[in-house]
């Protein structure tokens, strides 16, 4: 997927390698183009791990040469691999989400006469290159080489012009977000500052927030100014105004300019052939002053090449925390690309001075740790935070602190938090399992008292006062959410999905309540977490929507809901995608289904009959359920191997669907090293056969986790035996503590399933 | 025209009178509704003399109940007397101009459910009241009494609600200006701040500037937020978004919001019957911080009633500088209303801390005197600055200082300056006569060296480097501007009008050059100022456009150009409107026309044949030309009397056309006291019969100018004899010095023209 590299890029790679000394270059295995088709919605933009800033090629508007256009259909990523028409670089974008958001502050370079209309200034491109922290291409219309890199909170862009007239543009009117409105002000001949409104993510109309920016160009222009689309007037006024309904250029104005569709340009009359003009931008979600401080502090005196080399080194250090040997080159690329995608969100929210926008507030807080944002928790609570806890614990503890502080600021833990706003996207109470999971794995340096209070509040506050569980009253009363009562709409009701999430959350909280001596609450919560049994229908052999009167929805088709079809009871899935999702009480579900054999057969039928959706979260732990049963673990190994091979590749479509801020990638990362956290909130991993021969993971205080696999052939995917610290290991689900303290985990793999 | 007064208003009037002690209430003669029909484009809003802030009822949009709609036709005033649909109060508006501008920051009060669409929230009104510094009405749809008053840089608004639910709105999307784009930010539960772009006056696309504001409400609301018109989306995105293409309410957001069509609301859930909510707003053209300081410094602790009473007192002091006795009540009303309108522009630009936006710059200056703006000089150089010089010299000197400092900041003196931007509206070099006129009348405490340099620059810089005289090259070469050469358009070329203005300006500058010893330049300029002779056509008996080859335009109709019809050579007028406009060389024109008799007869023919346009500036001094000739002065007295009676009344249409920032009113004020400055740049007044029996004008240092008229009947309009300081006065044109030092000027008036 790595296309041609420019000479400049080659130089950067060399520089980067110098920084890493003799260590392996793990970034060379990352292909940022993976996931950029097939609705993976990742992008090849430049970013550092969990950075606020990303600089992303924007190619989803302005031309019918593009296959996908942000305004012509539902579209949620600034970049698509097959699109052709580049209209600039977006600053700060989301990776792997399903709703359009952010992706604004679009910078562009052009030659010739100034043209503020993106339909006209956009260009085809070639020589596309992307490596961690760097992206570049060549604009064929202009013969301009464009390159971008990033620090945590700022961007650096380098435009190499063919000479003559050239322009640098920033478009503040467009972006992936559906919010509009921006303001910009000239600060000096080479600096502007401003803000733009973002938000309404997944059409949560009140979840809006501003981004602030400061942008500099490296060379004072021959001329500069603003542009703004003029309101269309009718009649005699229109006749007088040559700019009516057009982009007007403000050539002599130098103070604030605001509007829906505005921009700013710098024009250079006489560039030398090959002359480079650089653009630097700092952003903040607090203020313009902080955006400037972020830019100054993170870039002081640094060249573009140095920033790119630094970004590469940071990535290499992060990726290198997991060192794999063996496996094919393709598998290494899949692995490190997955790890790369898992290290994008959540991302840092606070500025270099510690300020950040408080949760659901117009006020700013000051943080002594890294405050994080973009918590797509319905996705990430399943494996991404477990990956953080294991490999990046210093980040995971800050993520949990961030979540707990949100509850202090707003009263509630996050569900789908986006830059200080709760978007209420998807459902459940996913922060509870994340916090309990983290605590149980020994990361405890956060305010557990406040966390516990907030978790209890969410699990027990009745009525309209509880924004996290809109249907809590009947859930508390009946231990299930009846179909249609809250939504008033039987056809598109997500009642079963809601309740299934509450069960998982309440099970996690029950453990903590017990620990803290709230025995009665623990008992209640545990009991409540078993309410899924209400939904089990012997007739269909699945969970099934239930009405308020206790009867099941009829007629009922458990296959309905494939491909995001709207169905009663289930959100983004069919009954089959949800039926086995009781990770905290698998034994209970087994009993309901009539025993292990029936459970296993039915689960295998799901896997075999295309009733398993690899592209969305509810069923992604299904393959690991086989390993709960002695003699059936080979099915996990087989299915995981099959799914990895089929859905995770180094092609642009190498992620099965939305990456979901790294959760799909997280599934692949865990699966490829031979383990998976199959129940959020429980500190356990289910084991499977690693694809690599050796995996070494850095742990705190210089400790390491080593996983080895003995295989003769690459197709040796079945576990024959295991040892932990040299001692035989019989069970396939082990605790976090056992794993970390047990010494090397060793797999003996073979061709034959061990039944 | 004064409609019903509310009880609140009665209280204010009482308060106001207390402040004025036993002196006469001159404000009671002012009818701010005069000039609010007939395209007078004045307004009845609240303002203090030459104040930055005006608070103007806005009734020119949103309903077909309005006769005139700002978006349906060319429209240049926020208020029209016959319109019915009130949509709020504009903050900072222009008075008496012919192009749409300013009139934004629209505040409104409503009851019931919040409605952000002005088409729906507007209301009919009754009980309209306006006196200097105060305006009020009752909104019939809501039964809300609205009242507004102003300090120099801030507004106070009082809304008396019927009780129950009420709302205060500020609409930042609409306004009279054709520029759009604003930003607003919540500062506290009762304060917002922001800015809005204004400009493109008369479609000078680059003459744009921001207004900054801080607004407070007196009572914390039950809820508040922003609104913004949402960009219209198509397809699946539109289907998801309930706000698509509508005004969206931002109920939970509290940081910056920017856009083309935005606003902010405060809602009160439970107002008591008769409860009042007040709004206070400070503005600045420098910054939000200055807007806040202006508000704080000018309103600290003051009640609405006190601010209104202070405004009234300031007006009374200013109006009372000219005290008239005799004449009808109607004449007094016309006079003081005219004086009121003449004291609105130019208006103060600097903030209380002295800062102001520098001319054609994004930087701010600091002024130790009052920096003025809104210099409609093609109009005001004819009489308004002469009125300022005579009666308000402390303001006139600051106005001249402002003009000179503009030349220091930008290189050029103003032509039609608007908030730091040169709009290049109309033509000529009108600041030259203003400065020379002021200097020659003894107001000399300004930087005459810099002024002189700037004047010379304007009069002599050739080519494209001279923005003030776009056609200077051929003017310098031929002493006239040939038709069509510069415009490339024979049909709408203003060449003769341009040149006529240059002649007047160069004549004024010639005097100063001579004074300063630049004898050669003085000679050249004097010679150039006689270039009008090139345009004189014996055939038509008028000035006439001339081609570059020296031949006259043919065919030619000197009547063409009435009613603002576009014609070759003349701007907003016919050849007849311009032919006698050579005030600096009337004798020369007389010779061209074949002597006094022919000149007088032809001028009288113009006056008698409706070839005189009382509604625009070029010919407004015509009636005074008769007095240049012994035995013909009665014609001046007759014509001025006739024109005053016909065109200046106390009805809403009591100004003949655009008031032109007070110039039409200035004509009436001078004419009614018996004198007129008939040649800008020359310190002379031509005398005519006053309409009052006694006029007393305050002069600096406690001196007074007294004018008396002895008449038997009101219809005694002809001067029989005059005395100055008791000595017979034979001439009808006297110098400023003679007038001020001569003692009482006394007219004996009678029924019979003195031929």
Automatic annotation (TrEMBL), chains A, B:
Which organism is the protein's source?
Paramuribaculum intestinale
| Identification of the protein by name | Glycoside hydrolase family 92 protein
Note the Pfam families from the entry.
Answer: Glyco_hydro_92, Glyco_hydro_92N
Q: Which GO terms describe its biological process?
A: carbohydrate metabolic process; glycoprotein catabolic process
What SUPFAM superfamilies does the database record attribute to this sequence? Answer: Six-hairpin glycosidases
Q: Which residues form the signal peptide?
A: 1-23
Name the GO cellular-component terms. cytosol
What InterPro entries does this protein map onto?
A: 6-hairpin_glycosidase_sf (IPR008928), GH-type_carb-bd (IPR014718), GH92_a_mannosidase_put (IPR005887), GH92_N (IPR041371), Glyco_hydro_92 (IPR012939), PNGase (IPR050883)
